[in-house]
Amino acid sequence: MITWHHIVLALLCALILCSSFLFTSPLIVIIVCAGTCTGTLLPDIHMSRPKKVSFRTLAWGVVQIPRRICTPLLCRIYMRLGYPIMDPSDKRLTHSLPGIFVITACAGLLLYLPALLARSTFVGDVTLFLAGLLLGMGLHLAEDLCTRKGIFPLFPFSRVRITGSIRPCDKTDPRISRYQIQHGAVVSVLLFLESTGIMAPDLALLASLAGLEACMGIMVYSSDVTIQQDPGLAGTVRVPSPTQSTGRL
């Protein structure tokens, strides 16, 4: 999906998940939503620099962090494991579960170390931001698997590809707009129930989780998502082990 689609959908999902805290602990919601919006940008390492200064320029600047720090690390790790990556800007590096966990680990080191060394009281806030970061990247993958390009969730270890039927730039396809309206409606209902006290406080978090699960489930179902075996992973070559190369068991 294109950048602003990712941000809108991810922000609405974060609000659904955090709706039970909005009136009691708004700071938690702000930190998690900030982390989510940041996280949903990070996997797009293939993003080109905009010719004109715009919001996308800011997004491109954020993406340079994983592109310059995390993907070189991933390439080194995969090289050691026998899965050399020919193109370090290959989007499959970060559109995968190993990729987003390495980005989260790198972000944790960059954010936790200064806070711990300074004995800062913001360690809890850093934890919330990192949780939002991981949520945003997970939502990015969930949204991209609904598109025709899809994702390779276990790249480069598996050829399994998850793909849908959405073309994000196809303005005649109303599904993305429908998903945004759907997510927004769930947020509105949850906030209404919270503000009026109709829903018991003990059920608020369960209702939020159920709302998020319903939204994501409908999105995946409506996008005709399928799981395929890709015939080959361009840009990667499996290096045989010494045992394999000699034919020994």
Structure described in brief:
This protein is mainly α and about 250 residues long. Helix content is about 60%, strand content about 5%. About 35% of the residues are buried.
Assess the beta-strand content as a share of residues.
Answer: under 5%
Large-scale geometry: globular
Number of domains: 1
- CA-based gyration radius: 20 Å
Mean pLDDT: 87
Number of strands: 2
Q: How helical, in percent, are the residues?
A: 55-70%
**Helical/strand content category:** mainly alpha
Quote the distance from N terminus to C terminus.
Answer: 45 Å
Largest beta sheet, briefly? 2 strands, antiparallel
Widest sheet, order of strands: 1-2
Query: How many DSSP helices?
Result: 8
| Unreliable stretches | 234-249
Order of helices and strands: HHHHHEHHEH
Q: What is the fold's blueprint, element by element?
A:
Blueprint: H1 3-18, H2 26-39, H3 55-80, H4 97-117, H5 123-144, E1 160-163, H6 175-196, H7 201-222, E2 226-229, H8 242-246
Antiparallel strand pairs: 1-2
Helix pairs in contact: 1-2, 1-5, 1-6, 1-7, 2-5, 3-4, 4-5, 6-7
